Amino acid sequence: MRAIIIDDERLARAELKKLLQDFPEIEVIDEAANAEEGIAKIESQRPDLIFLDIQMPGKTGFDMLSELERSPHVIFTTAYDEFALKAFEVNALDYLLKPVEPKRLADAIQKLQLGESREIKPETENINNSILHENDQVFVKDGERCWFVKLSDIRLFESVGNYAKVFFGPNKPLILKSLNALEERLDEKFFFRANRKHIVNLRMIEKIEPYFNGGLLLELKGGEKIEVSRRQTVKFKEMMSL
Fold first, then answer.
1. Pairing status of strand 2-6 against strand 49-52
2. What are residue 138's DSSP bridge partners?
3. How far apart, in whole angstroms, are the C-alpha atoms of residue 228 and residue 100?
4. Residue boundaries of the structural domains of the chain
5. CA distances (Å), 79 to each of 9, 98, 129, in order?
6. Burial zone of 157 (CB within 10 Å; 0-12 exposed, 13-18 middle, 19+ buried)
7. Cα(first)–Cα(last) distance of the chain, in Å?
8. Which residues contact 175 (CB under 8 A, 6 or more apart)?
9. For a surface tag, which of 89, 128, 183, 204 has the fewest beta carbons within 10 Å of its beta carbon?
10. Structural fold of domain 2-128
């Protein structure tokens, strides 16, 4: 896969290029130091992927994307986390904070490979339907407020009609997502569908008690008590037994 690194910091480009040497499937074909140079190189070389900084002299990374006729896959690399929501809105594959950690880079490239391997659905759907793992960070927006949350910090998802309430720390924002859609994207090794209305983070369970009609009652670290349906109790015991 052919990639271009677009960043106004020469040392940042060099460091990322060095990290990418561990991924032979990614061929860095060029670099650019600003948005104008990036546009020219994307249009002439048509890469499959760009690693894109946001804050650059002149035009930002977002300005650059808005001028492209055809956008390749985008992985943002930036020192600032306040642009995370906007990055999500332009269908970025991932959002890496500088200094880029090798593990996060590996996760981003894995998402890219998962998207490339599925040819039945449109390209953007492939990316947005990849499995989310516990170390992934997700964008959560409720009204004017937004968060960039590590999935392992989310202890519970609760169905509220066509929405889902997301429990992390003291926050409980609503997102426009069904529990079934969330279940498809969450790693079942860490998230468990307890009943029709709840998905729990297995690592956030503090106490398990027998409950009515052969079910179980889970108490989470935030104090929430969640019933496991009788049918799901069988699955839960199978998953958690030695």
1. parallel
2. 149
3. 40
4. 2-128, 141-240
5. 11, 5, 27
6. buried
7. 42
8. 140, 141, 142, 163, 164, 166
9. 89
10. Rossmann fold (3.40.50)
pLDDT tens, residue by residue, 83-127: 766 666 666 778 888 999 999 999 888 877 775 443 323 333 334
Yes or no: domain 141-240 corresponds to CATH 2.40.50.1020: yes
Are the C-beta atoms of residues 114 and 98 closer than 8 Å to each other? no
Question: Minimal CA–CA distance to 106: which of 115, 119, 94, 123?
Answer: 94
pLDDT tens string 134-174: 888 887 877 767 888 889 999 999 998 778 899 999 999 98
- Per the listing, tokens 């529990």 go with 179
Q: H-type helices in 59-212, by residue range?
A: 61-67, 84-89, 102-117, 123-128, 179-185
Q: Which of 154, 121, 124 is nearest to 138 (CA)?
A: 154
Task: Determine how β-strand 94-97 pairs with β-strand 145-150.
Answer: unpaired
Which tokens hold the place of 37?
């140079």
Radius of gyration of the chain (CA): 21
Phi, psi of 106 (to 5 degrees): -60, -40
% helix, strand, coil for the chain, step of 5 = 35, 30, 35
The b/e string for 183-199 (b: 16+ C-beta within 10 A; e otherwise) is eebbeeebbbbbbebbb
CA–CA distance, 19 with 102 (Å, rounded to integer): 7
